[in-house]
Design a protein that fits this description.
Leucine Aminopeptidase, subunit E, domain 1, six-stranded mixed β-sheet, 6 helices, binds ligand AR6
Protein backbone atom coordinates (compact mmCIF):
# COMPACT_ATOMS: atom_id res chain seq x y z
CA UNK A 1 0.00 0.00 0.00
CA UNK A 2 1.40 3.32 -1.11
CA UNK A 3 1.06 5.21 2.16
CA UNK A 4 2.70 2.50 4.29
CA UNK A 5 6.47 2.49 3.99
CA UNK A 6 9.46 1.02 5.79
CA UNK A 7 12.86 2.58 6.28
CA UNK A 8 15.98 1.93 8.28
CA UNK A 9 16.86 4.65 10.74
CA UNK A 10 16.53 6.32 14.11
CA UNK A 11 12.92 7.15 14.92
CA UNK A 12 13.96 10.22 16.93
CA UNK A 13 15.04 11.86 13.66
CA UNK A 14 11.72 11.39 11.86
CA UNK A 15 9.73 14.52 11.12
CA UNK A 16 6.08 13.54 11.22
CA UNK A 17 2.98 14.20 13.31
CA UNK A 18 3.34 11.24 15.68
CA UNK A 19 6.14 8.88 16.61
CA UNK A 20 5.40 5.84 18.72
CA UNK A 21 7.50 4.93 21.74
CA UNK A 22 7.94 1.32 22.92
CA UNK A 23 7.74 2.18 26.61
CA UNK A 24 7.17 0.24 29.84
CA UNK A 25 4.21 0.44 32.21
CA UNK A 26 5.78 3.19 34.32
CA UNK A 27 6.19 5.53 31.30
CA UNK A 28 9.23 6.90 33.12
CA UNK A 29 11.83 5.98 30.51
CA UNK A 30 14.20 3.09 29.99
CA UNK A 31 16.68 1.78 27.43
CA UNK A 32 16.33 1.07 23.71
CA UNK A 33 14.04 3.26 21.69
CA UNK A 34 12.45 4.61 24.90
CA UNK A 35 15.82 5.94 26.11
CA UNK A 36 16.57 7.40 22.69
CA UNK A 37 13.21 9.20 22.51
CA UNK A 38 13.52 10.67 26.02
CA UNK A 39 17.11 11.69 25.30
CA UNK A 40 16.18 13.50 22.11
CA UNK A 41 12.93 15.01 23.43
CA UNK A 42 14.50 16.53 26.55
CA UNK A 43 13.27 16.72 30.16
CA UNK A 44 9.84 18.13 29.33
CA UNK A 45 8.78 14.73 28.04
CA UNK A 46 9.59 12.95 31.31
CA UNK A 47 7.79 15.68 33.23
CA UNK A 48 4.62 15.14 31.19
CA UNK A 49 4.97 11.35 31.45
CA UNK A 50 5.14 11.59 35.25
CA UNK A 51 1.65 13.09 35.22
CA UNK A 52 0.15 10.22 33.19
CA UNK A 53 0.17 7.62 35.97
CA UNK A 54 1.66 4.83 33.87
CA UNK A 55 0.08 2.77 31.12
CA UNK A 56 -1.18 -0.80 30.86
CA UNK A 57 0.34 -3.32 28.49
CA UNK A 58 -1.47 -3.08 25.15
CA UNK A 59 -2.65 0.46 25.81
CA UNK A 60 -1.21 3.83 24.71
CA UNK A 61 -1.01 7.44 25.90
CA UNK A 62 -0.25 10.67 24.06
CA UNK A 63 2.21 13.44 24.91
CA UNK A 64 3.75 16.38 23.10
CA UNK A 65 7.01 15.88 21.20
CA UNK A 66 9.08 18.59 22.94
CA UNK A 67 12.52 18.85 21.25
CA UNK A 68 11.78 16.04 18.79
CA UNK A 69 11.07 16.83 15.14
CA UNK A 70 7.78 14.94 15.66
CA UNK A 71 4.84 16.94 17.05
CA UNK A 72 3.54 14.18 19.34
CA UNK A 73 4.65 10.93 20.94
CA UNK A 74 2.31 8.01 21.52
CA UNK A 75 3.73 5.86 24.30
CA UNK A 76 2.59 2.27 24.11
CA UNK A 77 3.57 -0.71 26.21
CA UNK A 78 4.23 -3.90 24.31
CA UNK A 79 3.99 -7.38 25.82
CA UNK A 80 7.03 -9.22 27.12
CA UNK A 81 7.32 -12.46 25.12
CA UNK A 82 6.74 -15.46 27.41
CA UNK A 83 6.49 -18.16 24.75
CA UNK A 84 3.33 -17.03 22.96
CA UNK A 85 0.67 -18.54 25.22
CA UNK A 86 0.12 -15.43 27.31
CA UNK A 87 -1.93 -13.27 24.97
CA UNK A 88 1.22 -11.72 23.51
CA UNK A 89 -0.08 -11.48 19.92
CA UNK A 90 -3.36 -9.83 20.91
CA UNK A 91 -1.57 -7.37 23.17
CA UNK A 92 0.88 -6.39 20.43
CA UNK A 93 -2.00 -5.91 17.97
CA UNK A 94 -3.67 -3.66 20.56
CA UNK A 95 -0.51 -1.52 20.81
CA UNK A 96 -0.67 -0.75 17.09
CA UNK A 97 -4.45 -0.22 17.18
CA UNK A 98 -4.43 2.08 20.20
CA UNK A 99 -1.57 4.13 18.75
CA UNK A 100 -3.52 4.51 15.50
CA UNK A 101 -6.66 5.46 17.48
CA UNK A 102 -4.82 8.26 19.27
CA UNK A 103 -3.21 9.50 16.06
CA UNK A 104 -6.63 9.66 14.40
CA UNK A 105 -8.18 11.41 17.42
CA UNK A 106 -5.75 14.32 17.05
CA UNK A 107 -6.11 14.43 13.27
CA UNK A 108 -2.55 13.28 12.57
CA UNK A 109 -1.60 12.71 8.94
CA UNK A 110 1.55 10.66 9.63
CA UNK A 111 2.71 8.17 12.25
CA UNK A 112 6.03 6.34 12.62
CA UNK A 113 6.39 3.06 14.53
CA UNK A 114 9.42 1.27 15.95
CA UNK A 115 9.36 -2.55 16.09
CA UNK A 116 7.48 -2.65 19.40
CA UNK A 117 8.46 -5.47 21.81
CA UNK A 118 11.16 -6.95 19.54
CA UNK A 119 14.13 -5.72 21.60
CA UNK A 120 14.33 -6.11 25.36
CA UNK A 121 10.82 -7.66 25.38
CA UNK A 122 11.97 -10.49 23.03
CA UNK A 123 8.87 -10.79 20.83
CA UNK A 124 9.86 -12.79 17.70
CA UNK A 125 10.65 -10.23 15.00
CA UNK A 126 8.92 -12.07 12.12
CA UNK A 127 5.64 -12.49 14.00
CA UNK A 128 5.84 -8.89 15.20
CA UNK A 129 6.27 -7.72 11.59
CA UNK A 130 3.20 -9.79 10.54
CA UNK A 131 1.14 -8.10 13.26
CA UNK A 132 2.46 -4.59 12.54
CA UNK A 133 1.77 -4.74 8.80
CA UNK A 134 -1.62 -6.49 9.10
CA UNK A 135 -2.93 -4.11 11.78
CA UNK A 136 -1.85 -1.01 9.87
CA UNK A 137 -3.17 -2.34 6.53
CA UNK A 138 -6.59 -3.03 8.05
CA UNK A 139 -7.07 0.54 9.25
CA UNK A 140 -9.71 2.54 7.43
CA UNK A 141 -7.74 5.80 7.71
CA UNK A 142 -4.78 4.06 6.07
CA UNK A 143 -6.88 2.42 3.34
CA UNK A 144 -8.58 5.76 2.65
CA UNK A 145 -5.21 7.54 2.39
CA UNK A 146 -5.93 9.89 5.31
CA UNK A 147 -2.98 8.68 7.37
CA UNK A 148 0.55 7.68 6.34
CA UNK A 149 2.44 5.08 8.37
CA UNK A 150 6.20 4.58 8.47
CA UNK A 151 7.70 1.40 9.90
CA UNK A 152 11.10 2.37 11.25
CA UNK A 153 13.60 -0.49 11.46
CA UNK A 154 16.75 0.01 13.48
CA UNK A 155 18.54 -2.90 11.80
CA UNK A 156 18.64 -4.46 8.36
CA UNK A 157 16.98 -7.72 9.43
CA UNK A 158 13.90 -5.88 10.66
CA UNK A 159 13.79 -3.77 7.50
CA UNK A 160 13.91 -6.96 5.38
CA UNK A 161 10.99 -8.42 7.37
CA UNK A 162 8.91 -5.31 6.68
CA UNK A 163 9.81 -5.15 3.02
CA UNK A 164 8.82 -8.79 2.49
CA UNK A 165 5.38 -7.97 3.86
CA UNK A 166 4.65 -4.59 2.27
CA UNK A 167 2.71 -4.79 -0.97
N1 LIG B 1 14.89 4.15 16.52
C1 LIG B 1 14.16 3.12 16.03
N2 LIG B 1 14.18 1.88 16.56
C2 LIG B 1 14.97 1.68 17.63
C3 LIG B 1 15.77 2.70 18.21
C4 LIG B 1 15.70 3.98 17.60
N3 LIG B 1 16.41 5.01 18.06
N4 LIG B 1 16.46 2.17 19.26
C5 LIG B 1 16.11 0.87 19.34
N5 LIG B 1 15.24 0.57 18.36
P1 LIG B 1 13.30 -1.93 22.58
P2 LIG B 1 10.88 -3.31 23.59
C6 LIG B 1 14.58 -0.71 18.04
O1 LIG B 1 14.17 -2.83 23.40
O2 LIG B 1 11.37 -4.63 23.11
C7 LIG B 1 12.88 -0.15 27.20
O3 LIG B 1 13.82 -0.18 28.22
C8 LIG B 1 15.23 -1.98 18.56
O4 LIG B 1 16.30 -2.37 17.70
O5 LIG B 1 13.60 -0.49 22.54
O6 LIG B 1 9.44 -2.94 23.32
C9 LIG B 1 11.49 0.26 27.68
O7 LIG B 1 11.56 1.19 28.73
C10 LIG B 1 14.05 -2.95 18.46
O8 LIG B 1 13.91 -3.41 17.10
O9 LIG B 1 11.73 -2.05 23.05
C11 LIG B 1 10.91 -1.03 28.11
O10 LIG B 1 11.30 -1.36 29.43
C12 LIG B 1 12.84 -2.06 18.78
O11 LIG B 1 13.31 -0.72 18.67
C13 LIG B 1 11.48 -2.04 27.15
O12 LIG B 1 12.71 -1.48 26.70
C14 LIG B 1 12.24 -2.27 20.16
O13 LIG B 1 13.28 -2.54 21.10
C15 LIG B 1 10.61 -2.25 25.94
O14 LIG B 1 11.14 -3.27 25.15
Amino acid sequence: MQNVTALRGDITQIRCDVIVNAANTTLLGGGGVDGAIHGAAGPGLLEECRRLGGCNTGDAKLTAGYDLPAKYVVHTVGPVWHGGEHNEETLLRQCYSRALDLAEEIGARSIAFPAISTGVYMFPADLAADIAVATIYNRKAIIDGELDAILVAFDQKTLDLYQERLT
